[in-house]
Each structure stands twice: as structure tokens, then as C-alpha cells.
Amino acid sequence: MNIQTEKLNLIEWISRLNDTSLLEKLRKIKDDYSKSTDWWDTLKIEEIESINRGLKDFEEGRVHSHETAREIYEKYL
Q1: pTM score of the predicted model
Q2: Is it the case that residue 54 has pLDDT exceeding 90?
């Protein structure tokens, strides 16, 4: 079942509900979800720049294998 079908099924089900306590719980879920922020929006500019530098390195092939990284950083672990 795809997500659009699932949404429509939920909409139909909610439209037939008469239980106010259940509707209140659903409203609370909706409100809590609306208040949540994307973790990306909480990053500092320095963190975003660092991520972007890493993505650029990846795109340009400047990467190391897991084994190489372990060899380099093993002394720090």
C-alpha cells in the first residue's frame, strides 16, 4: 500500500470518528508534530559548512575507506 492510499484511508476513518477523546489525542499528535523542528534547522553555520565541505570532498572523490580511517584514527579510539 502506498503512502497516498494510507493517508486517504486515515482521512476516511477520522471523518467517521465520534469519539471526542480519540479526536483530542489525534489533535495533540498533530500539534506536537507541527512543533517539531528538523535537526538541520538547529545546526550552527559552522556545522553546516563542515557538512558541505565533506559532501564536496565526496563528490570530488576525496574519500578514504573505512579500513584506512581505522588505521589513521586507531590510536585515538
Answers
A1: 0.47
A2: yes
